[in-house]
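This section describes the prediction task in plain terms. A model, or a person checking by hand, is given the sequence of a single protein chain and must write out its three-dimensional structure as a string of tokens. No templates, partner chains or ligands are provided. The sample shown here is typical of the held-out split.
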Amino acid sequence: MPPSSTAATAGQETVEVELGSRTVAVPKGGLYDRFRMNTDLDVVERDPRVSGVDFFRGLSKTRVESPIGPTLTPNFYYAISTARLVMLAPTRAIRDRLPRELAPLEVAPGLGLVSAMFFRYDVCDIDFYTEAAIGIAVRPARHGGFGLIDLVSALKNAHLHSYVLSLPVNTEIAQVRGHDGYGFPKWVTELDVDIDADRTTARVANDAGDTDVALSVATPAQSSYSSGQRVSSLTSYTTVDGKWQETLSQTNALASGTSLFPRKVDLQLGSGRMSEDLRSLKPLRTLQLDVVTEGQLALHMPFPTSVPS
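The expected answer:
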């Protein structure tokens, strides 16, 4: 099993780098220290944790200005694993947590979808880190018509839209880039995620070091895919300085599995920001568990968007 996030970073020598008005520590000799987002794909391809880089050779990076200074986009994640619990929740509770400009994606009258998600990024342009999220499935901005059409379209095209309530991470650079650059509600905390073919476990700590959210569940049977065969997209909506923007991420699943109405899901809600966010949504039932034991990701910098007022 891979080392935990705390073990992976303990005692690691670091260097300081500037991101906009912030100074953060990154691993000395790591990908960010060496390449500053312009990572040499030939170097990554030699990493035994990375199955290949063909997905990234088909994507070009662009230099853009951002709140964190000039940067290259997309951010490439060469070896990742993820877990997502999809739950039914009352639309009324969801609307209480959404900005008025966004609308929940309903699967039936009065019922929407919320998720608890956990991520492990073993090889990435900004180095190893872990992440967790509480998200709400929303209808695409600027889209009229019926919600059912949006739902069918999202499932058919594997392109979902979301609004994130909480997004803790375990490294400074991930927090600063995500919060200042993208507008996500990110903070740094102790966060362990371990995902393999047998079991998926995760734990997010609160400010006191106690459990905020924890997950333990059997990993669904995995199917293997060639690179580019199973690519899905997610658009997330955030605001920066009061202005709406959207962020696109593309996931290249290489080994993944799904369990409908999964049994023996041990999801513990303790005390903290994540657990409070999930409780506020009043989840009713877990519909689906999605686990990617091997995948890749391209995360684009956000761009301005118009959201109906």
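For orientation: The helical segments are 5-9, 31-35, 41-45, 54-57, 91-97, 147-157, 172-181, 273-280.
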